[in-house]
Amino acid sequence: MKNCQECGRNDIDYYCKPCNSVHFRNNFIHWTSGDSNLDKLIQNSQLNATSSWKLIEWIEYSNLENIELIAHGGFGSVYKAIWKDGPLKEVEQAWDLNKSEWKRKNKMEVAVKKFQNAINVSSDFLNEVNFNLKMNDEVNCNDIVQIYGVTCDPQNGEYAIVTEFKNGGDLRKIIKKNYSNLTWKIIIEILRRISVGLDSL
């Protein structure tokens, strides 16, 4: 256990919930998603988080750059982008006491998942965000894609989920590309990782 450099608590790992929740709360007046239910979901995640990967943020679309279409399907489209600020650093003191701001992983490559007809925040969209957040909270597995937050494209008003970017595409593309090199050992490992993810649902 470490001592919080801000309040002096000595029962924390590296993330001080009392201090960090205050910093998040003080920033609530500076942003809104445009939907009160989504705002509440994001805010509750920040107030209740016990680590930086157990919360999500409202990410301004202007904070994303080099947006590139990766895939398009029946449910929506997936883009690759650079999140200029990036998520909070997983360090002993995430809040910079000298600068009064979060320490962040700048220029982070992320995936932006847009859903068809997500101009309004529907219950289905909220459930999708909540489900991904639950995976962040309950699963400690590198094979689970981490959600960072939510954004909205101002050009068309479409809401989107911002997640960790996994290079290589989906499983179908990976298998097709590497079919000739797949051994039973690799196939079994792929199936094992899928089962770990499914077991966490």
Based on Cα principal axes, name the global outline.
globular
Parts with pLDDT < 50 across at least 5 consecutive residues: none
Q: What can be said about the biggest beta sheet?
A: 6 strands, mixed
Widest β-sheet, arrangement of strands: 1-7-8-6-3-2
State the CATH class of the largest domain.
Answer: Alpha Beta
Structural class: alpha+beta
Order of SSEs: HHEEEEEEHEEHH
CATH superfamily of the largest domain: Phosphorylase Kinase, domain 1
The percent range for strand residues is: 15-25%
| Total domain count | 2
Q: Helical proportion?
A: 25-40%
Average predicted confidence as pLDDT? 83
Distance between the termini: 31 Å
Question: Could you say what the CATH topology of the largest domain is called?
Answer: Phosphorylase Kinase, domain 1
Number of helices: 5
Based on the structure given, which CATH architecture of the largest domain is correct?
A: 2-Layer Sandwich
The beta-strand count equals 8
Rg (CA only): 18 Å
Task: For this entry, give a set of tags.
two-stranded antiparallel sheet, alpha+beta, six-stranded mixed sheet, Phosphorylase Kinase, domain 1
